[in-house]
Design the sequence.
């Protein structure tokens, strides 16, 4: 009887769960549930910030001021974001919030399915990232869509579609600076000059695009104000009580209860480690090496950023999950244990599954959500520096 049940599960249930239709449907369902739930709960402040970015742009009002009569906090996305959010801002909030989450969910899941991996690996990757995506969508964060843009930039570059890759990188960067990490894959294309040319053209067009909603003078000032807002935000992030700074530096600062510990030594050390695998030029041709660099980049940009908050970790956790699916099967015990540790502490810790006392007084207080990602990133760097990636078995479609 047990064998029959296992056979039924393997033959019917498992293929259905890892099918593209099921995984895409799951992401759409998560987007709808989180959108409606947060709207009817009245908890969609981030969406209000995004929405008013459009209205402030067309009315030529400062984009980075506080508007307490409209929303709490302030905007930190680039001026081009006013165009991105426009189709949603024009809708009633109950509809705009949900469609915004659906758009982000589709960007992420189709970004995952754009990767040159087998269908089952892409589906498993989507399932592994689903809970972290849910957490980000509860905050209506663009980090979900941004992760998708980064994955598209990687996939397009591998396919030598340099124009599409350049547009994805330029758009992601001009909305949220994290998008610039798409440049990490520059050496994987043979069309380097074309990529640079497309990148410059994309940047110029996207930088000036907001002028169609406002004016040249307003747009110019908006970019200056954006830079100032990011500098100011960085100063606020490093306080020991902020919801940001969930990073390697944040762990150290909060363990030692010293907000004055500087970022620079950590960032320099991190950059040296991050860049060191580039010295292994003979490994560039191996697809597994390229995927490991993708995983490394997605984690690096988050764990070394003072602006990282819980919803930002959809970017890093996607990197952790890519690293996990790349490992040969059957996977070594320590690899499985490390991934489970990451899934529990990084993905599940912000949820109600964790007791509130532990969540608040330990995980949040010491930025422990970052810890497993730091550990996985160190493993990735070690593997990238020592492994011969021609021996990695990556099946592609």
Sequence:
């Amino acid at each position: 009887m047990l064998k029959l049940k296992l056979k039924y599960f393997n033959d019917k249930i498992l293929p259905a769960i890892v099918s593209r239709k099921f995984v895409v449907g799951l992401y759409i369902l998560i987007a709808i549930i989180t959108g409606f739930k947060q709207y009817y709960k009245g908890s969609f402040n981030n969406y209000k910030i995004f929405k008013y970015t459009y209205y402030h742009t067309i009315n030529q009002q400062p984009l980075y001021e506080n508007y307490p009569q409209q929303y709490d906090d302030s905007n930190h996305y680039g001026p081009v974001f006013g165009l991105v959010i426009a189709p949603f801002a024009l809708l009633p909030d109950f509809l705009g919030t949900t469609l915004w989450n659906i758009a982000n969910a589709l960007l992420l899941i189709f970004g995952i399915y754009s990767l040159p991996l087998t269908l089952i690996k892409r589906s498993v990757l989507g399932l592994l990232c689903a809970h972290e995506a849910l957490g980000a969508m509860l905050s209506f964060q663009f980090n979900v869509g941004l992760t998708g843009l980064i994955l598209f930039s990687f996939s397009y570059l591998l396919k030598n579609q340099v124009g599409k890759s350049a547009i994805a990188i330029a758009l992601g960067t001009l909305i949220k600076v994290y998008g610039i990490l798409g440049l990490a894959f520059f050496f994987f294309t043979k069309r380097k000059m074309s990529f640079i040319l497309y990148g410059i053209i994309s940047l110029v067009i996207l930088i000036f695009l907001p002028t169609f909603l406002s004016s040249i003078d307003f747009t110019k000032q908006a970019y200056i104000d954006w830079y100032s807002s990011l500098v100011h935000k960085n100063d606020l992030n490093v306080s020991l009580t902020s919801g940001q700074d969930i990073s390697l530096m944040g762990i150290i600062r909060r363990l030692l209860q010293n907000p004055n510990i500087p970022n620079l030594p950590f960032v320099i050390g991190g950059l040296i480690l991050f860049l060191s695998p580039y010295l292994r030029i003979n490994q560039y041709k191996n697809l597994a090496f390229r995927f490991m660099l993708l995983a490394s980049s997605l984690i690096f940009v988050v764990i070394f950023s003072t602006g990282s908050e819980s919803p930002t970790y959809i970017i890093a956790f996607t990197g952790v999950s890519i690293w996990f699916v790349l490992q040969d099967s059957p996977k070594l015990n320590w690899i499985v244990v490390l991934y489970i540790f990451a899934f529990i502490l990084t993905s599940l810790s912000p949820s109600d599954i964790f007791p509130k006392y532990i969540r608040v007084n330990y995980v949040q207080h010491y930025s422990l959500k970052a810890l497993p990602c730091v550990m996985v990133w160190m493993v990735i760097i070690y593997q990238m520096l020592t492994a011969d990636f021609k021996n990695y078995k990556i099946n592609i479609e």
